[in-house]
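EI: anyone free to look at a 207-residue chain?
SC: sure, send it
EI:
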Amino acid sequence: MATATHEHSSSSDNEIEQELSTKEPPTPATDSSHPKTLILSHHVGDIFSAPPSTLLIHACNTQGSWGAGIALEFKKRYPRAYATYRTYCLTEHSPTTDPVHTGTALLIPPCETSPDAPEHWIGCLFTSARYGKGKDRLEQILANTGPAMMELLGKVRDVKGERVAGVRMCKINSARFGVSWERTLEVLEGLEVREGWKSAVEVWSIG
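SC: here you go
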């Protein structure tokens, strides 16, 4: 009787082992509601040809000047947005006594009044306090870039009753601020996307 019981138990154990070996391993739970990091796609062409309600992003100083490079092109195309930026830097703040903090951002809604003016949002990333020979050190500009971009995306999320259709940016920091685009790209691609943020950004260059 003892032998029979032992054989029956061994047979049962073998059946259980065989059953367990044929079961599919459990699939780990994943959260696919939004990407974990910012997704950047690269395009060649005119950043200003964006559809209405697109957000156009560029890097700015805190002195109220869009005087050269692509900033000057923004100034020509969006004079009222430039006036808003300048007021923010020079009136709401003061470069000498209460400067705009680097590592922050300003979101300007479409505000041009000319009939043929594009209806674009403008995003200002304050990555350097000054410009020209007085611009911040390379490492400081890079350190300011991540927080500024995160603040801007948070402001876009918090806009009430208005829609930002898409996001475009130039190769920020790479011209007048003298930072290689590859270094800035590394910072941007490492940014964690939070709930409700725009996660896809188009990077536009002329070639």
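EI: The domain at 37-205 is CATH 3.40.220.10 (Leucine Aminopeptidase, subunit E; domain 1).
SC: 👍
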